[in-house]
Amino acid sequence: MKRELNENDSKKNDAKNQNSTKQYFDDVTSLPKFMLDWVEENSNDLITVWDESGKVCFVSKSVERILGYSTTELQGTSWYNKISPEDVSYIKSHFDESTSTSQTYNINIRNKDGKYIWTECKIAKIKVDQSGDSFFISTLKDISDKKEAEEMMIRSEKMSIAGQLAAGIAHEIRNPLTSIKGFLQLLQAGVNRKEEYYKIMIDEIEKMETITSELLFISKPMTDNKRVERVDEMIRDVISLLKPQANLKKIEIKWEQTESPSIYCDRSQIKQVFINLLKNATEAMDESGKIEIKVKKNNSQIIIEFIDEGSGIPEEIIHKLGEPFFTTKQNGTGLGLMITTQILEKHDAKLEIIKNKIKGSTFRIIMREHTE
After folding, report:
1. Are the C-beta atoms of residues 336 and 276 closer than 8 Å to each other?
2. Beta-carbon-side half-sphere exposure of residue 208 (alpha carbons within 13 Å)
3. Tens of pLDDT, residues 18-77
4. How far apart are CA 292 and CA 115, in angstroms?
5. How far apart are CA 107 and CA 12, in angstroms?
6. Chain-centre distance of CA 146, in angstroms?
7. Contact call for residues 54 and 44 (beta carbons, < 8 A)
């Protein structure tokens, strides 16, 4: 009996929502039909509206062109049915319902063929004055081509970084190989300190493994898999990769682990950010010196700073950094900071560039700390 009452209540609520929605769209569609048809046929965006229960009550006809569904297939379904589970969780945890300002997300949506496509989604909550009901309206734009172009630029930049680091890495690997060769020759000659030599050789091999695994990481495609990661582990990996290049220039990378915060991120992408900033700091220094990495917490924020002792960036061009192909380096592409900025935006983080008072620059990342 109780179950029947609940079902009846649910049907009544659905009918009420549908009537309210119908009234709202009757008002909207009072425009001449030829105008609405023109908008539908020429719009490159997909427009959807859903009510507070999450039911889709309007889908523009452009859905057939963009995703392959008919409008009737999506009307009445839940807004999150075709969106990847990771993106659904992200939107639910980050969408601010207290504002009517549109909020933008890059999300994966499954089309009728079962393939996920990248879209730029803008969502806003709108309240209808007459009825007091609230609706969510979104526009979706297919950005697959833009994503492919971005990924090509990222791959190009990653391979460029790998090539630039090769000299330092070759030098760093050659030293352990020389040591291992010498100890093997001693063992071959019949020396008695075998256990001690074995331990030294294993340590040297592990050094090479660390460097080569981080070099291989650069050549891998970017993932898009967010989970909770420890900042200190990612910084340690990046230092092991960039240390050989710094050693060639007699630059000390100084990092004292005082905090061990965690962030919700894509490990591959955030490590790419750290690599770009640490590499930039190394290249900014023409003389020996030190690069300092600081990690600190400020309430719910994590602040990560890369502080170099280079010549510093003139204040009049700081605002241009991050623009495609703008660079202050003779052989630079200008893509490194652009990629860094894009990755941080996807993580609701930001980059601040500050000219130090005495010398050098500080590149400061501000991220949200993950808490259980």
Report:
1. yes
2. 16
3. 444 444 454 544 556 666 666 666 667 888 888 888 898 888 888 888 888 888 888 888
4. 45
5. 33
6. 15
7. no
The C-alpha angle 31, 35, 36, rounded to 5 degrees, equals: 75
pLDDT in tens, 143-186: 887 777 767 766 666 666 666 666 666 766 777 787 778 778 77
Rounded to 10 deg, the angle between the 144-188 and 194-219 helix axes is 160
Strands of 103-110's sheet, edge to edge?
56-59, 45-51, 134-142, 116-127, 103-110
Q: What is this structure's pTM?
A: 0.50
Helix, strand, or coil (residue 343): helix
Cβ proximity of 339 and 154 under 8 Å: yes
Res 33: pLDDT:
65
Helices (H), 29-84: 33-42, 62-66, 71-74
- Concatenated DSSP letters of 253-280: EEE------EEEEEHHHHHHHHHHHHHH
Distance of CA 99 to the CA centre of its chain: 24
| Buried-exposed string 182-193: b where 16+ CB fall within 10 A, e elsewhere | ebeeeeeeeeee
Q: Supply 370's token pair.
A: 């993950």
pLDDT on residue 81: 87
